TrEMBL record:
It comes from the Bacteria. SUPFAM superfamilies: Trimeric LpxA-like enzymes. PANTHER family: ACETYLTRANSFERASE, UDP-N-ACETYLBACILLOSAMINE N-ACETYLTRANSFERASE. The lineage of its organism: Bacteria, Pseudomonadati, Bacteroidota, Cytophagia, Cytophagales. Pfam families: Hexapep, PglD_N. This is Acetyltransferase. It comes from Negadavirga shengliensis. Residues 2-71 form the PglD N-terminal domain. Belongs to the transferase hexapeptide repeat family. Coiled coil: none annotated.
């Protein structure tokens, strides 16, 4: 596969896959990054470049990952999906294109993980959850059964979302929070309650 992204998330993904998957090239738009984990960084993707293998976008920022996904989709590339060997992923769950399920993560029956989602180390997604595109479930977060998480939302490390709660699009759930009720689009939840400031941008 090709890897798009040579910073933090790029190192994590390369370290996960290069023991069994040949990496044909690493791209990054930052001209100051020359190499990553002994792989040369090829710079930005040339306009006329034709991807002959699948691409994985290794970018932690949800908005940037969406932007790159839309740009590459115009080139009709095929996006790779990754499930680490130590993860538990139900045969009755669905993982959409470009998503990753990292070490020790759990995804249970009838859950659906959207496009370009990061299910990070040790995250737990219980039964019948619906995770939208471009979501990041940070390490050790726990999603109880029947939860919905909207597009682009960040669920912070060690946070807990209680059963059947709906979290809107482009929300931010603070690390260590306990989410007890629905969260509207663009809102931030810290600890046990909502913050008033909205993160939703009209330019989405």
């Amino acid at each position: 596969m090709y890897i798009y992204g040579a910073s933090d998330q790029g190192r994590v993904v390369i370290d996960m896959v290069d023991g069994y998957e040949r990496i044909h090239g690493v791209f990054d738009d930052n001209p100051h990054i020359a190499s990553v984990l002994d792989y040369p960084v090829l710079g930005s993707v040339p306009l006329d470049f034709v991807f002959d293998h699948a691409v994985f976008i290794a970018i932690g920022d949800n908005r940037i990952r969406k932007k790159i996904h839309l740009k590459l989709k115009k080139k009709k590339v095929r996006f790779a999906t990754i499930i680490h060997d130590s993860a538990i992923f139900s045969k009755r769950a669905v993982l959409d294109e470009g998503s990753v399920v990292m070490e020790g993560a759990i995804v249970k029956v009838n859950s659906r993980i959207g496009k370009q989602v990061i299910v990070n180390t040790g995250a737990s997604v219980d039964h019948d959850c619906l995770i939208g595109d471009f979501v990041h479930l940070a390490p050790q977060c726990t999603l109880c059964g029947g939860i919905e998480v909207g597009e682009g939302t960040l669920v912070g490390a060690n946070s807990i979302i209680l059963p059947r709660v709906k979290v809107g699009a482009w929300c931010k759930i603070g690390a260590g929070s306990v989410v007890t009720r629905d969260v509207p689009d663009g809102k931030t939840w810290i600890g046990n309650g909502l913050k008033q400031k909205s993160l939703l941008k009209v330019s989405q």
